[in-house]
Amino acid sequence: MDLISSSLIDQGVYFVVLHVGKALAAPLIMQSELYWVYLFSGFAIAWLVWKLYLVRQATFTPVPASGSFWQNFFSRDIWWHPSARVDYKFYVLNALLMAWLTSQFWVSEQTVISWLPALGSSQASEPMPSSHILSRLAFTLLFFVVYDLGRFVAHSLLHDIAWLWEFHQVHHSAQVLTPLTAYRVHPVDLAVMAWVPAVFTGVLSWSYARWVDPSVTFFTFMGFHALVWLFNLVDHLRHWHVWVTYGTTLNRWFISPAHHQLHHSANPEHWGCNRGYELAIWDRLYGTFIQPSLTPMVFAKGLGDGTDGQWHTLRALFLRPFARFKTQRLRS
User: What does the pLDDT average to over 2-17?
Assistant: First the structure.
């Protein structure tokens, strides 16, 4: 074996060990959405939902009282279901695939900004210093709204464009929900969900720097945008069988975990609903909003087309969308 081949093998082994290690150590990495703080927060909220409930104007609604907390939320029927087991494998595979794709083809907010005219000719008449609290607060809020809109647009493209739906089906084929179901996403799907919001936030950042404040940054906390961090505390419940709503009024403005669980329903009446991530206004404007009830709703999860059992292998999750896409093109 020559030196070049040996070097390539060493680099390959290092790449695999590094990124699989990062994936497995995610609860210890502060910049990870699986950081222990967010996992603990989800667990704590689930426990509170189980133990405590308020009457009609409650922020959190009760879950069914049958069985214990562990029987309901840590059941083997959920966490060791064939659908869940393939989620765990796909999480590790995606750690490798996305590390490679990110290094080769990724479009980030900074990439988008680099495509736009240089900011040297800023038109902001009196640029506010980055420490200016009002400017920073405004940008923090604007960035969050635009980022959320970008995610909604990306998610809607995955649902409404037939060939993109072939890849998004990977996520919706999950028959049970656990926090790792959030990572049951085909790389093509992940690319769309990253690139579209990057365009939205890139244009916003460029525009704000050009016409308002050239040195502004948004507020961050623990490595995340401050508002994104806040929602991270509850977002793991979106993919878990814990029915949490925000109450009748707030449910019209914010996407609760219950909204997103309806999004995963196999019931045709729910298909394509509640596509938003944090803000419900986009679904209301687009006509895809369904208000979850304050009391837990019981429904099957999955595609609802009888094919869910065919998605229980890594091969199916990764290759089946390409085969279906090819078949669709031949038919057209």
Answer: 72
